[in-house]
Amino acid sequence: AKQEGKDKILFYKKDIQTNNLNHVQMANKLQSAIENEEFMLFYQPQFKLNTGEIVGLEALIRWNHHEEGFISPVEFIPVAEDTGQIYSIERWIVKTALAQKKQWEKEGLGHVELSINLSGKTLTSDVNFQELEILLSTFDVDYSKITIEITETAIISNVDLVIRRLNRLKAKGLKIALDDFGTGYSSLTYLKKFPINIIKLDRSFIQLIPKNSIDTVIIKHILSLAHDLRYEVIAEGIETREQLEYLKKCFCENGQGYLLSKPLSQEKVNELMNSFRLK
Ligand code: C2E
Ligand code: CA
Ligand code: CA
Ligand code: CA
Fold it and tell me: Could you tell me which residue ranges the EAL domain spans (predicted)?
């Protein structure tokens, strides 16, 4: 048993070493991705569940590496956050998303809302938050139709600073969504301290729905509590009819997920929006 334990520790150490190596390699690759503009934004439609109409689009970054193909944001965002590369990546994201929003407004699609994911890093860095504000002031778009998505971990560090900054964003008209709700440890009543408009119910919750167990009861009550606290709710990761029907039954107003639509390229999303407009 002792021997086994030892091996495990060795294995673990080796794991850390490979991870560090991957980390450095990833950081280097990211540097050239930033310089060569290998990023793209995809947009996942968000739907009003009882009418099926598209109410918004969530911008999601895609990295098409010239040799390796698509690399997931789950892999590179954490590295970029560690190295600080997230700042330039996020400036590119915000710029690109706002330019796209402006384009949609010109095409008569100004009513469609746009969500942008923001790392907690940008929110808590003085210089980079200021740059974000400058960026926001250079685009003449309808900010009341823009939502910033942040995660719980991003807001529970530096509570006062984060509250101040979120309020500055809200003063420009933007809405704030709490992403991945349910994966952290804070209760909704605690989160009430933060100026949040929208709660995004994490996919891990939605996945529980098929089971007719205690979990579906929990979801129903989270939805009811969120509504009583005057939050708007978006359910994430809806993959089955069953999940959709249950959410509708619990008065969940909005949702996104593969059942409704995968994230789409800019061209595909334009096609989709045009077909909606013609109707
Ligand atoms: P997220 O913000 O929670 O985004 C939702 C993720 O779930 C997206 O993955 C989306 O493609 C995926 N998804 C949507 N519907 C379904 C479904 O029905 N089933 C399943 N299994 N997945 C679904 P993606 O694009 O790979 O992004 C993963 C995470 O990477 C995001 O989670 C977000 O935390 C981060 N990320 C993506 N784009 C950005 C960005 O532009 N900025 C920042 N800061 N983070 C980003
Ligand atoms: Ca998100
Ligand atoms: Ca999420
Ligand atoms: Ca997530």
Answer: 23-277
